[in-house]
Amino acid sequence: MLEVRRLRILRELAARGTIAATAEALGYTAPAISQQLAALERESGAELLERDGRSVRLTDAAERLVIRTEAVLAELEAAAAELEAGAGALHGTVRLAAFPTAAATLAPAAMAAFSRAHPHASVVLDELEPEQARPALKLGEVDVAILHEYDFSPIPRDPGIEQRHLLEDEMLVALPDDHPAARGRTVDLRALEQERWVAGYLDTACHRVVMTACRAAGYEPLVGARTNDFRVVLALVAAGQGVALVPRLALDDGTKGVALRPSKSGPLLRRITAAVRAGGAGHPGAAALVDALAQVAAKTQRG
Fold first, then answer.
1. Strand-pair partners of 246
2. I need a surface site. Which of 199, 262, 263, 297 has the fewest CB within 10 A?
3. What is each CA distance from 208 to 43, 182, 214, 234, 261, in whole angstroms?
């Protein structure tokens, strides 16, 4: 009989690529992870890892086992949700992860609505970028995650996660209000080739959206500042320190000195979703929070 805990370790190794990263994510030591994987090989009677010095690669048999593992974990999650649903009134804590813009806009109203409807339960919020929230969700560190992806760079479907659409958020070009390109109703990104750009941190979606949009316009952007905080982005743009792409959801009254225009080539959209673990949509707490998020998102989209 294959042990579920060891299957989870194999699944995480497939997602993270190294023993060290898997150990860090799961809170084990690297030798302990290696021991558990060796035990799983003995249980399965198959070679699961190809070792080359300090690096490992999953064999074809291991890749097939990971696919099966996703289905097993989803069934266990669904079983736990079913048991929880029969427990009566909602109690306990629901853990929510949200990227900064959603944490400042969608999450507070949804958490308040959840608290009013379920006074004996609570929501705990962690501010996490999608790159952090996805593994945290799959590891069980959070129960619901607000994620986003861009229409030009969709994230491959993850069988370990179920998502519900919340809203589409348009990215606008942010310019100093006296910039020549701000005179029109739209902005041709090709006209900004010589500008300094404010982009996100490397390996985040806020970085990729700038790089992808500028490359589509035919050039490599010159990045003059990196931040994932759109308040900082807008302050830098207002001070004439660069141009940027900013989502509508991040805008408030603090945009003095900044002109915001759609891209001439068409809308740049990011799709925002609420995610739970596969099989976990029936957890009463998670379901109630996702419903609250959907209601807030619908009001936001109409507004």
1. 172
2. 262
3. 42, 24, 10, 18, 20
